[in-house]
Design a protein that fits this description.
The protein is mainly alpha-helical. Helix content is 58%, strand content 3%. The chain contains 23 helices and six strands. Helix 7 runs parallel beside helix 10.
C-alpha cells in the first residue's frame, strides 16, 4: 500500500482508511447475506416454491461467480496516493464514439451468435409480434375466422383479450414495439435495442459531464460500469423493453437536470414514452424520487406541473388496454381470465405471492450484482457513505431501492433475464452512483486506479463467460425451435415441457409454416378439423429433451398422456402425419390461403 508523505498520521488518512474499511465490510456483508439466504433457506424450508428458471440461473450461473466479486471488494481501498490527489482517468469524445460503435456492434452481432437468431422469452416474442402488427399499419391483427375456436392453441399467453378471439396483440404497452416498427422502416429492427443501448451510453456521458466537470475520472467510471455490465450488453442483444426503459430514463434525467421549461416539457414527452414502453409501473418509480426532491427544495410550481403531467400520462396508459380491447367487440368473460384492466391484473398477481418470495428476491439480487462491473457495488455504497453528497445521490439511491421493494411484493419472480431485469431501468442510477463513489475516492485521496483497471479487465472477461452461459440456456430452446422451423408439415403440435410454450409463436397473419399449436390446449375432437388437406407433425416430449434436461436434469421417454390422445385422434381421423416431406397439395394451398385451416 502506498502512503501519503506526512510527518505522522493525518485525519485525512484515518478517514479514508475507515471509510474504505466500512464499505468493504458492508459490501461483503450484503453478498454473504444474499448467498446465505439463497443457499440455506431451501434447506430450512424444503421446497421454496419458486418456479424455473430462477433456481437454474442461480446455481448454474450466479453463485459460482460470487467469490470473484468478494475478492474484488477486498481490493477496494487497498491503495493510497503518494502525491495527494491521484491523477484522474480521462475519456475523449473520440473514445466515447469508439465505445458507442463497439457496443452497438457487439449487441447486434450477439443476437445471432449468442441468441442464435431467436427471440428466447415470451416478452421478446411479444415485442417482435407487436412490431409486425404495427409495421403493417394496424393496432391489432385479425385472427382468421376458421382459427378462432381453437385460438388458445395458437398461444395467447400475454395476449390482450380482444372480442371472442377476433384479433390479437400483446397485453404489453406498445412503445417498445412501435420503436421496433419505426426502425424497421429504415433498417433491420434487430438494430433497435443496440441503438437504445448507445442512446443510454451517450445520455449517461452527457449527464456525467454536467455532474463532474472537474472530475473526468468520475465520468469514466460511470461509463465503465455501463459498458462493462453484462446485463446491459447481453440484454441489448434482445427485444426486451428494458433497454428502452434504461435509455429513456437516462434521457429523462438529462432533461430534468436542465431545470428550465424546455427540460420540463422534454421530461413529460419522454416520460409518456417511457411509461408506455412495456408496463406502466417502472418509469414512474424511477421519476418519483426526483420529483419528491423538488418538494424538498420547495419548487412548488414544478411539483404541481409534474403531478398534473404524470396523472395524465399514467391515466392514459392505464386506459390503453381497456380502450384497445374494445376495438374487436365485447370480450366474453371466459376469454378474460387474467383481466383487461391493470387493477384486475394486479389482484391476480398478488394472489401468486408465495413463501418463496424472500428466496427469489435474494436470487434476483445475487444475479444483479454478478452481472455488473466487479466494483459497482462498493462504489455505489461509497457514494452514500458519509461526506458531502450531491442532492442527486439520494434520489438515485431511492430509485434503486423502490423497484426492489415494490417488485418484492408484487412479482418477485422475473422469469428469464440476463441480470435482474426489473432493475434494468435504473441501471443508469447505479452507474451514476458509482461515478459519485469515484468522486468520493478522489476526495479521500485514495488511489484506486490499479484496482479499477484490473477489475475492469476482469469484467470485460466476464462478458464472454456470461455470453457462454446465455448461449447454453438459449440453445436448450433453440435446438427444438430450429427443428420445428425445418419441418415440412403445415401444422406442428407441440407437447408439454419446461418453457415449450415459448416454441409456440406464430406470425400475426399466420403466414408462418408450420403453424405451431400447443398440444395441451387442443381436444382430440379438434384434430379432424385441423387435418383436411394439411399435413400435421407432432413434436413430442422426447423431442424436447434439451428443455427437459436443462431445467429438470432428466430426459423424458414418451409423449405426455394428452399428446398420446392427440396421436390416436389423428390416426382415427386418417390425418396426413408428416414424415419429413410436405404434401405438394398442402404446400400450394398454404401459399394461396396462409390464414385458413
Amino acid at each position: 500500500m502506498a502512503h501519503v508523505v506526512t510527518n505522522g498520521p493525518s485525519m485525512g488518512q484515518e478517514e479514508a482508511t475507515d471509510c474504505a474499511r466500512r464499505v468493504r465490510l458492508l459490501s461483503i456483508a450484503i453478498l454473504l447475506v444474499l448467498a446465505l439466504v439463497a443457499m440455506v433457506m431451501p434447506q430450512i424450508m424444503g421446497r421454496i416454491g419458486s418456479p424455473q428458471p430462477t433456481p437454474t440461473m442461480l446455481y448454474a450461473q450466479d453463485l459460482i461467480l460470487l467469490p470473484l466479486f468478494c475478492i474484488s471488494v477486498l481490493l477496494f481501498g487497498s491503495g493510497r496516493s503518494e502525491m495527494g490527489t491521484p491523477a484522474s482517468l480521462r475519456l475523449t469524445r473520440e473514445g466515447l464514439a469508439v465505445a458507442a460503435v463497439v457496443i452497438f456492434a457487439i449487441c447486434l452481432w450477439g443476437h445471432e451468435l449468442i441468441f442464435q437468431g431467436m427471440d428466447f422469452s415470451r416478452d421478446e416474442q411479444m415485442a417482435v409480434f407487436d412490431a409486425a402488427v404495427f409495421h403493417s399499419g394496424q393496432l391489432v391483427a385479425p385472427i382468421p375466422l376458421a382459427w378462432r375456436e381453437i385460438a388458445p392453441a395458437l398461444n395467447l399467453q400475454f395476449m390482450l383479450p380482444l372480442g371472442d378471439h377476433a384479433a390479437w396483440v400483446s397485453a404489453y404497452l406498445p412503445i417498445n414495439a412501435m420503436m421496433r416498427a419505426l426502425v424497421a422502416t429504415v433498417i433491420d429492427p434487430l438494430a433497435t435495442s443496440p441503438l437504445l443501448v448507445v442512446v443510454g451510453l451517450l445520455a449517461l456521458a452527457a449527464i456525467g459531464r454536467q455532474l463532474w466537470p472537474d472530475s473526468p475520472g468520475s465520468q469514466v467510471v460511470a461509463l465503465l460500469c455501463y459498458l462493462c455490465s453484462s446485463q446491459v450488453v447481453i440484454t441489448g442483444m434482445t427485444a426486451y423493453a428494458v433497454s428502452a426503459h434504461l435509455a429513456l430514463n437516462l434521457v429523462w434525467l438529462l432533461l430534468f437536470m436542465r431545470g428550465d421549461r424546455i427540460g420540463f416539457a422534454g421530461t413529460l414527452i419522454v416520460g409518456f414514452l417511457a411509461t408506455g414502453a412495456h408496463q406502466p409501473l417502472f418509469h414512474p418509480l424511477f421519476a418519483l424520487p426526483f420529483v419528491l426532491g423538488l418538494i424538498w427544495r420547495r419548487q412548488w410550481w414544478s411539483v404541481l406541473g409534474y403531478g398534473i403531467g404524470y396523472t395524465v400520462i399514467v391515466g392514459f396508459w392505464l386506459a390503453w388496454p381497456v380502450w384497445l380491447s374494445g376495438q374487436a367487440g365485447p370480450v366474453p368473460a371466459a376469454n378474460d381470465a387474467e383481466g383487461i384492466d391493470y387493477v384486475t391484473r394486479l389482484l391476480h398477481v398478488l394472489a401468486l405471492i408465495n413463501r418463496g418470495a424472500l428466496w427469489t428476491m435474494a436470487a434476483n439480487l445475487i444475479r444483479f450484482v454478478t452481472w455488473q462491473h466487479l466494483l459497482l457495488l462498493p462504489l455505489m455504497l461509497l457514494s452514500v457513505a458519509g461526506g458531502r453528497r450531491s442532492p442527486l445521490v439520494l434520489p438515485l439511491a431511492i430509485g434503486i431501492v423502490l423497484p426492489i421493494l415494490v417488485m418484492g411484493v408484487l412479482l418477485p419472480w422475473q422469469g428469464h433475464g440476463w441480470g435482474y431485469r426489473y432493475l434494468h431501468p435504473v441501471l443508469g442510477n447505479a452507474c451514476l452512483l458509482a461515478g459519485f463513489g469515484w468522486q468520493r475516492v478522489e476526495a479521500l485521496r485514495l488511489d484506486l486506479r490499479r484496482p479499477m483497471l484490473w477489475t475492469t479487465v476482469a469484467s470485460v472477461v466476464l462478458l464472454p463467460v456470461h455470453g457462454w452461459m446465455t448461449y447454453r440456456m438459449v440453445a436448450s430452446q433453440a435446438v427444438p425451435d430450429q427443428k420445428i422451423a425445418r419441418m415440412a408439415a403445415d401444422i406442428a403440435i407441440v407437447d408439454s415441457a419446461p418453457y415449450s410454450a415459448n416454441l409456440v409463436i406464430n406470425a400475426p397473419d399466420l403466414s408462418n409454416r408450420p403453424i405451431r399449436l400447443q398440444g395441451w390446449t387442443l381436444r382430440p375432437a379438434d384434430i379432424a378439423a385441423l387435418c383436411g388437406t394439411r399435413w400435421i407433425a407432432f413434436v413430442d416430449a422426447p423431442q424436447l429433451d434439451s428443455l427437459n434436461v436443462y431445467y429438470n436434469d432428466k430426459p423424458v421417454a414418451a409423449p405426455s398422456p394428452h399428446q398420446r390422445l392427440l396421436h390416436a385422434a389423428a390416426r382415427n381421423a386418417g390425418c396426413h402425419v408428416d414424415q419429413g416431406v410436405r404434401s405438394p397439395i398442402a404446400a400450394a394451398t398454404a401459399a394461396a390461403m396462409p390464414g385458413q385451416l
